[in-house]
Every structure is written in C-alpha cells, then in structure tokens.
Amino acid sequence: MGNSIGKRVSRIITNSINNLVSNLENHSPMHSVQLGLQEIDETLVNIRHEIGKNIAKKYLEKMQLKAMLQEHENLYPKINIALTQGREELAKAAIARQIDLESQINVLEKNVSEHEAQEKELNDYLLALNAKKKEFLNELKFQKKQQEELNKNQAKVNLESILTMPQSTQAIDGSMKSSLVELESLERETRILERLNHIKNN
C-alpha cells in the first residue's frame, strides 16, 4: 500500500494542470481541475488511513518492546541468585531466555524505526498534496471567474443583437402583431352578430 501511495502521490505532484487538462480531452478545463481535486482528496484520505494504521502498529510493537526489555533486565538478578546457590543450569536457562529476547528485541527495534520513517514519509506526502491542492483550488477559482466573464459577455452580445435588429424586421414584427389584433377583433365582432341574430330569430 505504501509503494502504491508513493507512486500515486509522485504522479499527482509531477503532473501539471495543463497536462491534466490535455489528458482529459473530453472534459472542460474546469471539470478537469475538479477531477484532479477529487483524486487529491481521495489520496489524502488514503494517506491519513495509512498513518493511523502505522501509528497503531508502532504503538503495539513499542509496548511489546518495553515488556521484553523489562523481562531481559529482570533476568540479571535471577542469574546471579542461581549462580550464588550453585544452580548453574537455572542460570544457563535464564541466559538462553535473554538471548532469545535479544533476537526479538532487535526485530522490534527495527520495526519501530521503520514505522517512524514511514510515518514521516506519509506526513511529507500530506504536506506535498495539500500544497498541490491549493494550486488546483486557485486554478478552479480562476476557471470559474473566466466562465462568469464568458457568460456575462455572451449575455451582452445577445442583448446587443436584439437592440441592433434591423428596422425592417422590427416593422414586420409590428405589422404582424397589428394584423393579429385586427383578426381577433373581427372574430369577436362575428361572434357578437351571430348571437344577436340567434336571439332575434328565437
């Protein structure tokens, strides 16, 4: 997991925004940046999860190491007592236990050191990704501002095109509206006459 995270972080850090936009040809620049931010956030979550696991393992191994060191130290007076009482076989057994403990202690000390080194590496990844995230957020802010300006300009162009519509077109539209009003008036007059005739006949 550590190696895969390292490769992923390295790819994100070395990949510029321009490269990201170019690689995602089917997406707008703004959407490409948003996808980049999403990947950064997902990677940050994974790193924090790995840091948590690493801290837990280091804690358990430190507890084991402390217990073994204590046991190793407690064997010295027992060895002396056994020798004092002429029980060399007991002293040899205690020494053998010390040697076994020393082998395990060496492994645990190495593991704890590795956990500390890995924890530092993961924290460095966090710092690097958060810096990259700021870069992407600034780019996203710029893209949104550009989109807003584009929308304003488009609205302005649409308004200008309406205001600069040729007079002949406006006259035609006015004539059509006038004709429609006249037709509605005639239709209303016809209905009134029909009802009047109907009343008279009855």
Give an overview in words.
The chain is mostly helical. The protein has two domains: 148 residues, no CATH class; 38 residues. The protein is 93% helix and 0% strand. It is built from five helices and no strands. The termini are far apart. The model has no long low-confidence stretch (mean pLDDT 85).
Helices, by number, come to: 5
Which structural class fits the helix and strand makeup? mainly alpha
Which sequence of SSEs, written as H and E, runs from N to C? Answer: HHHHH
The N- and C-terminal alpha carbons lie at a distance of 97 Å
- Computed over alpha carbons, the radius of gyration is 42 Å
Number of strands: 0
Mean pLDDT: 85
The percent range for helix content is over 70%
Short account of what is shown:
The protein is an all-alpha fold and 202 residues long. The protein is built from five helices and no strands. It has two domains: 148 residues, no CATH class; 38 residues.
Please tag this protein with its features.
mainly alpha; single chain; 0% strand; 5 helices; 2 domains; 202 residues
What layout of secondary structure does this protein have?
Blueprint: H1 2-14, H2 17-23, H3 29-84, H4 88-163, H5 167-201
